[in-house]
Amino acid sequence: MKKKSTQNIIKTVSLGAAVSALLSSTSPVFSANVAITGATIYSSNDPASAYIAYIKGSHGSIVLNGDNDYCGVDNVAGRGGAQKPGTAITAEEQYERFINNETFSGRNPYGSSTKKVNWTGGGNSVAVTSYGIAGYDPRVNGSSAINDFVWKSTKGVVSVGNPQNGVTRQIVGVAADTDLSDAVNVAQLQALREMILTGGDSLIQQDGQTGLITIGRSVNGDTIDIINNEKQSRKISGLGGGEVSEHSTEAVNGSQLWETNGKISELETEIDNIETNITQIQANVTKVAQNTSAYFGGGADILNDKAPTYTVNGSKYNDVGSAFE
């Protein structure tokens, strides 16, 4: 029987020809060569011998022995049992070793490790990832560049399966936790999904049925400022042409303004032509008025609304008709 065993949490553990009984609700125990109630245990640890017989235990006693000092149970002697050479410790001392992560003879059978840890036995769980590997960061869609214990492991991985051989397990009974390095459960992921679908505290939301996107519908305010952190203005692109009507509140885009500017330019050209024509007409009217004034004589000035004066037989007249009566 080999001393190093893959940990399984069960009520009894078969150890070669022996059965080491474990109390309910206690931590798993690693043991080597256990003799109980008069039984003789044989071990194959010695390469020079096929088997080595270990001492029998008397009634009501447990006797343990091994070929070195690296054993899960250091040394336990019960009622009437002979204590074998080694370090005798109490149950309280054994508990303190486990809690305080103490090291013995350069090894640590109780605490944490930087090596890969297989959580279940039988070869069903294999840890293939070393410690110090950065985790996935969705913000960069790759390994995190943050070099701290939250994003990069400081100890060996714990495996509950063997992904390379398609062996996976679900971990159940996990409560929602709070710290940065704690595991999350499905309930937390569902809550996150619901918040994303409903927009959360975001001002921008989309109706899942109609596809309508609204901005700030559930909050107050009548001004939107899109200036950047350097107090510079921004452009808005992808804007469709808005309705141009008396009561429209839709925005217009550059294409619509370009079309309007083209029409305004055409109108300005037409106005310039009209002004030229009017100027020409004014010149012609002035010429006609001057000629007409000259034709009427008598100091007539049609442009300045001055009537001519005619003297006939000592009488003055201001129009041709009266002068010839």
TrEMBL record:
Protein name (database record): Trimeric autotransporter adhesin YadA-like stalk domain-containing protein
What residue range is the signal peptide?
1-31
Pfam families cross-referenced by the UniProt entry: YadA_stalk (PF05662)
Instruction: Identify the GO cellular component terms for this protein.
Output: outer membrane
InterPro entries in alphabetical order? Coiled_stalk_dom, Serralysin-like_metalloprot_C
Annotated ranges, domain Trimeric autotransporter adhesin YadA-like stalk? 170-207, 235-278
Taxonomic path: Bacteria, Pseudomonadati, Pseudomonadota, Alphaproteobacteria, Hyphomicrobiales
User: Which keywords describe this protein according to UniProt?
Assistant: Coiled coil, Signal
